[in-house]
Amino acid sequence: MASNKREQFTAAQQQTAAIAKALGHPARVAIMQLLAQREACVCGELVLALPLSQSTVSQHLKELKAAGLVQGEVDGARVCYCIDVAGWALARQLLGDLLAELPTATAGPTNCC
Length: 113
Prior knowledge:
Elements: H1 11-22, H2 26-38, H3 45-49, H4 54-66, E1 70-75, E2 78-83, H5 85-101
Antiparallel strand pairs: 1-2
Helix pairs in contact: 1-5
Keywords: DNA-binding, Transcription, Transcription regulation
Domain HTH arsR-type: 8-106
InterPro entries: ArsR-like_HTH, HTH_ArsR_DNA-bd_dom, HTH_MetalResp_TranReg, WH-like_DNA-bd_sf, WH_DNA-bd_sf
């Protein structure tokens, strides 16, 4: 019987991959940068600050929210977003651990390909 391949990876590896995937689009990186600069919840200003439609920005926010990097709060007919502090702390830890495990450019193998 076939097993789920995801079960072959640790929870930390799966979380790291989800975070990397969420940050794997330049628009999402830009959204995170804008949210970090404002240090407060942002509603419609994201659409004004990016060269993207409102629906596209909403899709990117949905991906960032699913990865635990942002949180949204309903304020009447609009949703205001800000960085999820706990989620971002976990992302920093997981990505930092991954980067610390990888060799630096000068410490890598010299006989590769």
